[in-house]
Amino acid sequence: MSAAVRQAPGMTRRLLSEPRSAAGVVLVALVVVAILLGPELLPYAPDVPDFADPLAPPGAPHWLGTDDLGRDELARVLQGGRVSLLVGLASVGGALGIGAPLGLASGFFGGLFERVAMRCMDVLLAFPGILLALGIAAALGASARNAALAIALVNLPVFARLGYAQALSLRAREYVEGARAIGRSEATILWRHVMPNALPPLLVQASLTLAASIITESYLSFLGLGVQPPTPTWGNMLHDAIGFLDQAEWLAWFPGLAIFITVLGCNLLGDGLRDRLDPRDRLQG
User: Fold this and answer.
1) How many of the other CB atoms lie within 10 Å of CB of 93?
2) Quick check: 101 pLDDT over 90?
3) What is the CATH number of the domain that holds 142?
4) Cα 137 from chain centroid?
């Protein structure tokens, strides 16, 4: 069993005991619970218009108001959160699931595979992230799947380079040499000894990248290259609000606030994980 697995319960307690990381856990948990349960509990559907009550200000019975078609803004914010979070999680999961093993294998085995894989990652890193995502999404077409794929490709070299650095650091450790000495294969050593101990920094990066991915998805949807109406996302809700800022400014407040709270929670959680998983922090504690 790896050291990271053995220390998981204690790390969780330390994570919740630190105010900043605890705040991140609470914010992320509240957002997830709200977007998962909220749409099922509300009496209004996010895509059903009410032409008798358009642009209603916040208050009963529409607590966040309505849009220009009379659709309940609270229902749309919560439903849009589902889509935005799903795209963010799918993109981060894809980038982590492909990039981390690629980087770990490159750093551990070296040779031609390392040179080819890392140079490909360097090519992707040479492009500004948002411009690369815009170009990929525009080439593939506007949809949730293509937005997730574009964001995953942007984040792929981040996890590959981090996995590569971890493998370079871990492949010379004593327990790796010991595993070689008792006849373990290189693939087994990578899977059972290197990968579990490289996982904590990769998880920290995943939580921080999730925040950036949600923002990128909002960019794409705002520009019409992400999820298409009538499916709500926080990005296309902000786009729809542009024409009504002078008479219904709340249409921009609430999706913007949802993005802010979610990104803040992910960043606080990532900072807390980084602090708790830092070996120097554990030694000082």
Assistant:
1) 14
2) yes
3) 1.10.3720.10
4) 18
